[in-house]
Design brief:
CATH topology of the largest domain: Nucleotidyltransferase, domain 5
CATH class of the largest domain: Alpha Beta
Radius of gyration: 25 Å
Helix content: 10-25%
CATH architecture of the largest domain: 2-Layer Sandwich
Number of domains: 3
Largest sheet: 6 strands, mixed
Length: 601
């Protein structure tokens, strides 16, 4: 069936949102604005309320509790949304949070039952993929309750961090398919935020961006920090927007800040002679999150009370109490996570302990300003800019964390200071909409852009990608055979396109374990597909995680070297698919395929 709606979904670390545009009656005029759907959810047992934001939390009820009934499921034993988030402060071992961060954690089995961590025996653990599925399934059920046409029949745009690797993207799509969302397109969150800004500005966006301008999208959300740079380019008299850089995936955001505030309150309790056990600390972290949000939302509040259950007691029996003050939030968040640093500052790495508990791979350095300086420095040469840093001329803020005026001011002060040292002016701020809802709105607007309604941001890969080819050489002790790096995906290669690789005399080893080496570069932007690099300067190419695989012999002898030609494409979900096609196939359509996580480090 043809879709009636374009639906944008922001599957966030701490909040999920949905916006939609009705395609019925879509004429030749301006595209209609996306409307945010209020999502019904349990606020408390037996209390249903529709809110624009659905907290990305999942709570499993104890057998002694009544069913967590919804209009479409009267016997449900788990809750998604606000009630689940509330329970995280009281029963953290029964709550799944940050499922999106677990989904991109390549150090765990993302399809394995690992959540909630430390769950009691009466809970059957689930995987990060299933947790994401349950969040999306709640959206699907809520949509079905509101509309006659199922969500699975609509054109769904689902957002992911720009730095998500191929596996995380694939697993996100897998969770969407499990929720019945079969017509899914992925869109990077910073682009979605900029699409929301373009939609809100209308034709007036050209008054804010002109040829040569570089918009820096700073996205600090609940679990991750992402940086992207998008340039305005004049082509044949038409102004276009092109993404020119994407930062690393940084597991640093509101979750880290909540934990830091929890340590502040824990110290206050410790000074009062009250020690916390690990689970009380988890509960305190969730409580501090809610307190932080209250303080940032209401400038008149000087402090807000904190209460968590004492050991062996109910919350109301002998609760542990303290106050979180506005001064605490300002000092910890502004100075701790957005410190004043020099343009040459870089995130510090700490020595790792040999044995560690399985958990999320948080960034070692909490200073967002250091990560930003590193991003701008790495892109300076690549963008052809003079000076030590890429020079953004405009900034668009996104993510719930940067709603705080003090945090935005610190980031703008840092940028202005760094750019002044390079002789460049301070960037201006692009007027944005609600950062909690911008990504969902922008995703829905992108669905219209795909139908020719509006300006499209040219994206593609944020790097050029190369495969390592071993050159024949006599064996020499201590010397490895030389490697040639052949470009298989040029910088900016668009999703859903193929690279035209010229013929090469290449041999593929089949029937035995082999290792494929891949490289990426964010600075070599002019290499064409098929370009072969015999040598390169330090820092030009970064070696990515290798792929070890045994390719089937397909009727040949194990260890045979098959003459092949290479074909490459960027799939619609943003992964690099490399295919080796035999020059003399044994059967029609014979080829070997290798899929690379093009954003994997």
């Amino acid at each position: 069936m043809s879709a009636r709606w374009v639906v944008g979904i922001d599957l966030g670390t701490t909040h999920t949102a949905l916006a939609a545009v009705d395609l019925d009656g879509l004429g030749d005029g301006a595209a209609p604005p996306a409307q945010v759907l209020a999502l019904p959810q349990l606020i408390a047992p037996g209390t249903l309320e529709a809110r624009a934001l659905l907290p990305s939390f999942l709570y499993f009820a104890h057998e002694s509790e009544a069913a967590l009934a919804l209009p479409w499921d009267g016997g449900r034993r788990f809750a998604v949304g606000e009630h689940a988030r509330t329970r995280a402060a009281e029963s953290p071992a029964r709550v799944v949070s940050s499922a999106k961060s677990w989904l991109c954690h390549d150090g765990v089995d993302r399809r394995g039952p690992i959540l909630p961590q430390g769950a009691p025996d009466d809970i059957e653990k689930i995987s990060p993929v299933e947790a994401s599925f349950r969040l999306l399934d709640h959206l699907s059920e809520a949509w079905q309750a509101e509309h006659a046409a199922p969500l699975g029949e609509q054109d769904v745009i689902l957002t992911v961090p720009a730095s998500f690797d191929a596996t995380a993207r694939d697993l996100t799509v897998e969770a969407a398919y499990a929720a019945g969302l079969e017509n899914v397109t992925l869109l990077e969150e910073p682009q979605a935020a900029l699409y929301a800004w373009i939609a809100s500005a209308g034709d007036g966006w050209r008054q804010h961006l002109g040829p040569g301008d570089v918009a820096l999208v700073i996205d600090v959300g609940g679990g991750t920090t992402d940086f992207s740079a998008i340039e305005a380019v004049a082509r044949e008299g038409v102004l276009e927007l092109t993404r020119i850089a994407v930062g690393d995936h940084i597991l640093l955001g509101g979750d880290n800040m909540d934990l830091a505030l929890a340590h502040v309150v824990a110290n206050k309790l410790r000074d009062a002679g009250k020690e916390l056990d690990p689970w009380q600390m988890v509960a305190l972290t969730h409580t501090c999150r809610a307190a932080k949000e209250r303080l940032l939302a209401d400038a008149t509040l000087a402090s807000t009370p904190i209460a968590i259950a004492g050991r062996g007691s109910s919350l109301f029996g002998s609760a542990l109490r303290a106050d979180l003050t506005r001064d605490d939030v300002t000092r910890v968040l502004v100075d701790g996570f957005f410190p004043v640093v020099a343009a040459g500052a870089r995130p510090t790495a700490r020595a790792r302990v040999g044995l560690t508990q399985i958990g999320l791979p948080y960034a070692a350095d909490p200073a967002v300003t250091k990560h930003l300086a590193a991003f701008l420095s790495r892109q300076a040469g690549a963008g052809g800019r003079h000076g030590r840093l890429l020079h953004p001329t405009a900034v668009l803020f996104n993510g719930g964390v940067v709603k705080g005026d003090a945090l935005r001011a610190r980031l703008l002060d840092a940028l202005a200071h760094w750019l002044k040292e390079d002789g460049a002016p301070a960037p201006r701020v692009l007027p944005g909409a609600d950062p909690d809802l911008a990504v969902a709105r922008g995703a829905a607007h992108y669905g219209l852009v795909r139908r020719g309604k509006g300006l499209r941001i040219r994206g593609g890969t944020a790097r050029a990608y190369y495969v390592g080819i071993e050159s024949p050489a006599p064996a020499v002790p201590g010397v490895e055979p030389p490697i040639v790096a052949m470009c298989v995906a040029p910088f900016g290669m668009e999703e859903g396109t193929h690279a035209e690789l010229p013929p090469h005399e290449l041999g593929l080893v089949v029937g035995e374990p082999v290792r494929f080496r891949f490289f990426g570069s964010s600075v070599r932007r002019d290499d064409r597909a098929g370009a072969a690099l015999e040598r390169w300067q330090p820092g030009e190419l970064d070696e990515l995680s290798p792929i070890e695989v045994e390719l089937p012999a397909e009727g040949r002898r194990d260890g045979d070297v098959v003459a092949v030609e290479l074909a490459a494409q960027i799939t619609p979900v943003g992964t690099l698919l490399l295919e080796a096609v035999p020059r003399e196939p044994l059967k029609d359509g014979e080829r070997w395929k290798i899929e690379l996580g093009v954003r994997s480090e």
